[in-house]
Amino acid sequence: MDTRTFDALTESMKSAYVAGLSEGAVPRPVIMPLVRGELVGLIWLRPVEPGRDALTAIASLSNIAAAAGADEIVLAWETHDVATVCELPVDGPSPCLNMAVATKDGHVLHQFPYTEDQASAAPRWLPAPAPQPDAELLPPVRAAVDYAFTPLDLDHPSPFGVTVVLMEEDGYTLRLTEAFAF
Question: How far is residue 97's CA from residue 37's CA, in Å, rounded to a whole number?
């Protein structure tokens, strides 16, 4: 992924955190698949029940990337939020926006820790640690990264189209770019 694209996605996620925290919540985990450098869209996690449902739903974010034939993904999530809903221990900086940039050959974890300004609820971004190649990821995030590059075996004339419809029916929020909208 070129630096300009990564910087744009990072700024987009940071802006989402500013908006979300001002409304009292961090944004849900989101996957951003890319095909030959072109963004497919942003797909946010559906509403989940804590525990197994959350684990499965996060891993299932990969379906859209697999159906699109993505060669790269960016997966973003908040440390404490995902650990809590998945009933896992918090591992790493918290609060923190995490962004895993991945291909089938590996991933790099970028972390953007922050504190919340009590007066405005806006994040105050702290210095980011160095990117971490092949860093340990929470199990559902690791599954989403791994499955994103596993081709879907769907007997349908439009595997991408049917995946979009099924994910929307399941409650995921999809915002596809013009090139991938149908």
Answer: 23
Residue type present at position 96: C
Summarised one tens digit per residue, pLDDT across range 124-149 is 999 999 999 999 999 999 999 999 99
Burial 2-14 (b: 16+ CB within 10 A, else e): eeebbeebbeebb
Query: pLDDT tens across 93-133, in order?
Result: 889 999 999 999 999 999 999 998 777 778 899 999 999 99
- Burial-class residue 122 by CB neighbours within 10 Å (0-12, 13-18, 19+): middle
Query: What pTM, to 2 d.p., does this model score?
Result: 0.92
Number of H helices, E strands in the chain: 6, 9
Strand-pair category, 72-78 with 30-35 = antiparallel
Nearest of 25, 62, 23, 66 to residue 43 by alpha carbon: 62
Kindly report whether the peptide bond that precedes residue 89 is cis, defined as omega within 30 degrees of 0.
no
In the chain the first and final C-alpha atoms are separated, in Å, by: 25
The 3-state DSSP class for residue 18 equals: helix
